[in-house]
Design a protein that fits this description.
Mean pLDDT: 96
Number of helices: 6
CATH architecture: Alpha-Beta Complex
CATH superfamily: Spore Coat Polysaccharide Biosynthesis Protein SpsA, Chain A
CATH topology: Spore Coat Polysaccharide Biosynthesis Protein SpsA, Chain A
Helix content: 25-40%
Number of domains: 1
CATH class: Alpha Beta
Radius of gyration: 17 Å
Shape: globular
Largest sheet: 7 strands, mixed
Order of helices and strands: EEEHEHEHEHEEEEHEH
Structural class: alpha/beta
Strand order of the largest sheet: 5-4-1-6-10-7-11
Strand content: 15-25%
Distance between the termini: 36 Å
Number of strands: 11
Length: 228
């Protein structure tokens, strides 16, 4: 089975990268002459996904300008959060509500995505469908993070995520079934509230990435990433 629709979360204020995000939203900042959003879209295209939904709020007009000047071999639709920012959970729900699909792959463009992830994510997709999982997160051991100050979020054993022996970091890619979120109210809420509820029921799963993890955590790290 395949996933036909990807969601990219682009609505955040990017405050940890101020002042460079005062005029440019974080996903449109460049690393290696490509925006972080470019890196993300290119990976999604390489995965064979046919449709991309992108949410916006902060400096939303910049995204419309960006797509006027870029042509991608994939169907891309920009969807606004509305009059108030919806956070990660509300943003995902708003995007899911605009689609008839059952399963989605969700990306955070703060991670510097590249072709090295293709094989891992394809295996992750196969695992999701074969085990009939509802929510599967891509995790990496914190030792693989370029930002050595990044704190671990989760424990992981036999694909099951817990909050014991926290050695793993969520790196910004997850697969989810619409059933885990569609009954929520369309308000400002974090996707982590869904995750913690699933953890309590032993229903949140993880797939371990073995790739060194580069993430635009803050302004200092972002500047260092320019030199890689």
């Amino acid at each position: 089975m395949k996933i036909n629709t990807a969601l990219i979360l682009c609505a955040g204020f990017g405050k940890r990268l101020n002042p460079i995000t005062l005029d440019t939203p974080k996903p449109l900042l460049k690393i290696n002459n490509l925006t972080m959003l470019d890196h993300c879209i290119k990976l999604i295209i390489d995965l064979g996904v046919k449709k991309i939904l992108i949410n916006t709020f902060y400096l939303k007009e910049k995204f419309y300008e960006f797509f006027k000047n870029h042509n991608y071999k994939v169907d891309i639709e920009v969807i606004e959060d509305g009059s108030a920012i919806l956070d990660t959970g509300g943003g995902i729900l708003n995007l899911v509500n605009k689609s008839d699909d059952e399963n989605f792959i969700v990306f955070n463009p703060d991670t510097i995505w590249n072709k090295k992830y293709i094989e891992e994510i394809n295996v992750m997709i196969d695992l999701y469908f074969s085990k009939k999982i509802k929510n599967l997160l891509l995790l990496a051991n914190k030792e693989l993070s370029y930002d050595k100050n990044m704190e671990a979020d989760f424990g992981l054993q036999n694909y099951l995520i817990s909050q014991k022996s926290k050695n793993y970091v969520y790196i910004g890619c997850q697969i989810l079934n619409r059933s885990i979120i569609e009954k929520e109210q369309l308000t400002n809420f974090s996707i982590t509230s869904i995750w913690y509820d699933l953890i309590k029921r032993n229903q949140l799963y993880g797939f371990e990435s073995k790739i060194n993890f580069y993430h635009a955590t803050n302004l200092k790290i972002f500047k260092k990433l320019q030199d890689l």
